[in-house]
């Protein structure tokens, strides 16, 4: 199974720029074209939150128009810039969007991997929350099946060394670690929020975040660093699940680049 992971698309209303500088919609359009052009194409796209910038209906309408150009199905979870009800209202034909107990979280069993989307957003907060209610849901959901499972959420629970982001790690991450402890069926977890590509193992689970489809957080590991962004290349993450081999990932930048060029000509390495 081939899965593409994108995140932090931050779509704004027509004519509005993010942070007065970034026209995010054309970046997402280029990401969609990039994913559609991959050979072989991904079976599925997962977007891990901050889909729009202010949770406005007109932003979600614009998001839907762009995502509708994908040649493959897509799944979404909300981030701290999203508004749950506006997101649901925009995608009424996506029944998994209804979620449970007010959250947009769900488990899908029709794929080679079991897909579990977790909602870590809390209105009015930039950081994530994993409360007792969500813990009960995730524990119950993981108890339902021992099939290989991909978990995806917006807020990373792990430390990155970037002070601003680490101050916004999931509140209740100890509770999340307890739920994940010993869950060997969780083969990978995808996160957003960081606007950077990061990979680690946390609570025994391989986890990764990927760069935004638009602007990236500046990598600054100083303990007093302030958050800033730069127009580093956008990217998406490609995950390949193979029965008997497990999960591996690639990161591919999105944009116009020279090539491809051959290494060999007439069976000989070009010098």
Structural class label: alpha/beta
The CATH top-level class label: Alpha Beta
Portion in strands? 15-25%
CATH fold-level assignment: Purple Acid Phosphatase, chain A, domain 2
Major beta sheet, strand line-up: 4-5-6-7-9-8
Shape: globular
What is the number of helices? 6
* CATH-defined superfamily: Metallo-dependent phosphatases
What count of structural domains?
1
Q: Radius of gyration, rounded?
A: 19 Å
Q: What is the CA-CA span between the terminal residues?
A: 37 Å
Order of H and E elements: EHEHEHEEHEHHEEEEEEEEE
Q: Please identify, by name, the CATH architecture.
A: 4-Layer Sandwich
- What's the total number of strands? 15
Sheet of most strands: 6 strands, mixed
Spans with pLDDT under 50 lasting ≥5 residues? none
Percent of residues in helices comes to 10-25%
Determine the mean pLDDT. Answer: 96
Describe this structure in words.
With 271 residues, the chain is α/β, with parallel strands linked by helices. The chain has one domain (2-254): Purple Acid Phosphatase, chain A, domain 2 (4-Layer Sandwich), CATH 3.60.21.10. It is built from 6 helices and 15 strands. It has helices spanning 24-37, 57-67, 84-90, 132-143, 163-166, 173-180, and strands at 2-6, 44-48, 74-77, 106-108, 114-117, 149-152, 186-191, 198-202, 205-209, 216-217, 229-230, 235-242, 246-253, 264-265, 268-269. The strands form 4 sheets. Strands 4-5-6-7-9-8 form a 6-stranded mixed beta sheet, with no helix packed on it. A 5-stranded mixed beta sheet has the order 3-2-1-12-13, with no helix packed on it. Helix 4 links the parallel strand 5 (114-117) and strand 6. The chain is globular. The N and C termini lie far apart (37 Å).
């Amino acid at each position: 199974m081939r899965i593409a992971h994108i995140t932090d698309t931050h779509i704004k209303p027509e004519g509005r720029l993010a942070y007065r500088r970034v026209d995010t919609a054309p970046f997402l359009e280029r990401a969609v074209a990039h994913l559609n052009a991959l050979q072989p194409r991904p079976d599925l796209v997962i977007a891990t939150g901050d889909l729009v910038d202010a949770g406005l209906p007109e932003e979600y309408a614009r998001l839907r128009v762009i995502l509708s150009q994908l040649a493959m199905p897509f799944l979404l979870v909300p981030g701290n810039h999203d508004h749950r009800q506006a997101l649901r209202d925009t995608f009424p034909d996506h029944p998994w969007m209804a979620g449970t107990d007010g959250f947009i979280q769900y488990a899908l069993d029709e794929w080679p991997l079991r897909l579990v989307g977790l909602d870590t957003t809390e209105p009015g907060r930039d950081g994530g929350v994993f409360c007792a209610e969500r813990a009960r849901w995730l524990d119950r959901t993981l108890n339902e099946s021992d099939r290989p499972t991909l978990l995806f959420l917006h807020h990373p629970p792990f430390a990155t060394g970037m002070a601003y982001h680490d101050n916004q790690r999931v509140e209740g991450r100890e509770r999340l670690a307890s739920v994940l402890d010993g869950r060997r069926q969780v083969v990978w977890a995808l996160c957003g929020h960081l606007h950077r590509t990061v990979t680690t193992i946390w609570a025994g689970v391989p986890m990764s975040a990927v760069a935004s489809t638009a602007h990236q957080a500046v990598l600054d590991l100083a303990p007093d660093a302030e958050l800033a962004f730069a127009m580093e290349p956008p990217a998406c993450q490609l995950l390949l699940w193979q029965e008997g081999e497990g999960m591996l990932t690639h990161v591919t930048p999105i944009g116009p680049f020279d090539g491809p060029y051959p290494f060999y000509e007439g069976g000989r390495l070009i010098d």
